[in-house]
Amino acid sequence: MSLLVHAYVRGPAGEMVFLDGPAGSDLAGPTTARTGIYGAPCVVALGARMLPMLATQDVYAETAAELDALDADCRLLLDNIGYVSASVGRDPDFVAQRLRNIAGAIKRARKAGGAVVIW
User: Fold this and answer.
1) What gap in Å lies between CA 25 and CA 39, rounded to an integer?
2) What pLDDT was estimated at residue 1?
3) Model pTM?
4) How far is residue 40 from each of residues 9, 23, 54, 58, measured CA to CA in Å?
5) Structure confidence by residue, pLDDT tens digits, 64-117
6) Do residues 67 and 116 touch, judged by C-beta distance below 8 A?
7) Is 17 in a helix, a strand, or coil?
8) Is 32 strand, coil or helix?
9) Residue among 75, 79, 94 at smallest CA distance from 37
10) pLDDT greater than 90 at residue 62
11) Which of these, 4, 3, 1, 18, lies nearest to 109 by C-alpha position?
């Protein structure tokens, strides 16, 4: 299974209406990334707040503050990509691309007045 990221808006009945992004932009990593990357001790030690929640639950960033916090987590991990990738045993480009996918979803959500889910 894969961990996916989607930008969305709410439809008239409250349903999630996904916003299209470029091909492959919905990939946030394999399911094992929940604990193996985003919930890893190194990510927690850096001070990430939203991404570590993936270890136990899906993440919904539905308010401006939650989108800001998720974006801050992405920037924090990208700024420390060497440390993170070495700590979790993953190629830095692999981790960075998944973080850029999440950041891209945040941009699409903000532009449309929507939200982001990572599940």
Assistant:
1) 21
2) 82
3) 0.97
4) 30, 27, 10, 16
5) 999 999 999 999 999 999 999 999 999 999 999 999 999 999 999 999 999 999
6) yes
7) strand
8) coil
9) 94
10) yes
11) 18
Measured distance CA(31)–CA(1) in Å, rounded: 6
- 8 Å CB contact between 85 and 36: no
93 neighbors 111 (Cβ within 8 angstroms): no
Residues 6+ apart with CB under 8 A from 35: 54, 55
CA distance 108 to 91: 26
Residue 67 tokens, joined? 């989108």
Token pair, residue 99, equals 């973080």
Tens-place pLDDT, residues 17-45? 999 999 999 999 999 999 999 999 999 99
